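Recap from last week: sequence in, structure out.
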Amino acid sequence: MDKKSYHKMSDEELVQLCKVCDDKALTLLIERLGGVIGNCVDNFSDSRFEREDLVQEGLVASFRAILSYDSSKGASLRTFAGVCITNALKNFVKKKDNGLITADADFVPLVDETAGETTTEDEYISSENYKNLRRSLKEILSETEYKVFSLFAEGLSYSEISKKTGQSFKSVDTAMQRVRKKLKNIL
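Predicted structure tokens:
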């Protein structure tokens, strides 16, 4: 399929292609969500936070939104992504304000720790489609980055990842920063 064909597709059609490991579709969807990310970040921007940190959190949240999107629920991908990004940014700001995130501490985990019960989104993320998309990431990320990202996506903290992989906390943090930059470059 050529690039023009992708641009003619709806978000929902591209999501379906993402679920069968189509990197071009994923890249285009993340590009399309750039405005949503920017709008959400603008709502949280103030002197306390680096815009780049907020954009990175928004980018990771948009990736999660693509992974978990279900058009049968009635919301458009942009609406669903906006909610996911806003929630991720709220959690980031809350943790930063409470001192849970510092320069050397963990960022917001990809799993929503504030939810007391399993949501449809959580169930969908753990589905086979999620596994297929994560395989696509193997092509973008180095082996170390992929391993760290995978553990992070499972909800492990940087400290737990450090213990599990035998890498230093700083190495884990550096790997996640590279992951965020690579995902940001897609945007």
